[in-house]
Amino acid sequence: MPTKDYSEIRRTFKALILGQILSLCLCGTGVSSQLLVNQNVNAPAAQAFSNYFLLCFVYCISLACKNDENGLVVVLRKRGWRYLILAIIDVEANYMIVKAYQYTNLTSVQLLDCATIPTVLFLSWLFLSVRYLASHILGVTICIIGIACVIWADALGDKGALDGGSNKVLGDILCLAAAVMYAICNVAEEFLVKQHSRTEYLGMLGLFGCIVSGVQTAVFEQEALSKIVWDGTIVSYFALFAFSMFIFYSLVTVVLQKTSALMFNLSTLTADFYSLLFGIFMFKDTFHYLYFVSFIVCIIGSVIYSMKETQVRDADEPRRVCPCLFVCCCCCGCCFEEGDSTEGSIDVSPSPNERMQMGLNPRGSMSPCPVHGGSQQLSHL
């Protein structure tokens, strides 16, 4: 077997295994949250605070021990405001998705998975200059079909379709808002961990997350916390949630460094299947065979997506959305006719004069293809 093929298989296998570990961590947070709900505990901000406290305790101490430009004080002075904004988005996304369960049903909340994936795809293309090939689009489509199987299974079994929905419109709005916020966090996290370090990102997120979630807990959940009987069972459920989220956040940065935000979201789609298994044995939930179909389909989609690495667009390459879904048009002119025809596409790149002023190659110049390599004529762009 050629060395290149072996490395691709090894990379795909690692990404798949890490994704399943992340799914199990998400399952752990869901199980612990359900156990807390069964104990009449309703404190989502306090649960989030426990996770951010662990992140701050572990990674902020590591940053504080550094005296160079990567130290805590220097990072706070240079980039602290970025992490503050990101922490606010992350905390509120977690809070909103938990609150959504009070207004809508399980089926609607599961649509969050489908809403996050295309949002991450678009933001990665727009801000991270990612070029997606046909295999990536195919993998995403297969994964969305897989999660649709879960939603259809819930609809067939009337699970969450007829009950638990005091204000479904508000709940669906919360789900959609949380999906967009999760997508922003994922793409920003991918950029930050690749530009700086995992320790810096997790330390800053933990520090500001502690502050934001702590204030939110003190303002909105003080009465709820005072009613909790803090016995060993409740403490153990909080600990399970905190450690599951801590491991999840820590491993997410590894996945984002090695793959991408989109691959992370595709891999964790199988968390619903693992939650189902725990629900069957712990909460006596019933299941539909489509859950198993969903698991297999999501795995297949994740493998197809990770078979080829995404490419980064050249700085002087136009951002053009074409009907063939980001297939390499720089080499074939499949969507654009000669004479600079752009019928059926959306050009969001600078004009030729603007490109000249920016010091970039004008149209018609020779530039290496970001997908296939080598110099290609870009006159059709």
How would you describe the overall organization of this protein?
One of its GO terms (molecular function) is transmembrane transporter activity. The chain crosses the membrane at residues 49-68, 80-98, 110-130, 137-157, 169-189, 201-219, 234-256, 263-283, 289-307. This protein is mainly alpha-helical. The chain has one domain (2-311). It has helices at residues 3-38, 44-64, 72-100, 106-127, 134-157, 168-195, 198-220, 222-226, 232-258, 261-267, 271-282, 290-306, 329-332, 352-357, and strands at residues 130-131, 311-312, 320-321, 346-347, 366-368, 375-377. The strands form three sheets. The chain has a two-stranded antiparallel ribbon with strand order 1-2. The longest helix is centred in the N-terminal third of the chain and has 36 residues, at 3-38. It is globular and about 60 Å long. 40% of the residues are buried. Mean pLDDT is 74; it is low at 159-164, 321-350 and 354-381.
**Spatial shape:** globular
Regions with little confidence, pLDDT below 50 for 5+ residues:
159-164, 321-350, 354-381
User: What percent of residues are in strands?
Assistant: under 5%
Helix/strand order, N-terminal first: HHHHEHHHHHHHHEEHEHEE
Structural class: mainly alpha
- Tell me the number of structural domains: 1
- How far apart the termini lie comes to 38 Å
Strand order of the largest sheet: 1-2
- Overall mean confidence score, pLDDT: 74
Largest sheet: 2 strands, antiparallel
Q: Taking Cα atoms only, what radius of gyration do you get, to the nearest Å?
A: 23 Å
Number of strands: 6
Helix content: 55-70%
Number of helices: 14
Membrane topology: Multi-pass membrane protein
GO cellular component, one term: membrane
Keywords: Membrane, Transmembrane, Transmembrane helix, Transport
Family: Belongs to the SLC35F solute transporter family.
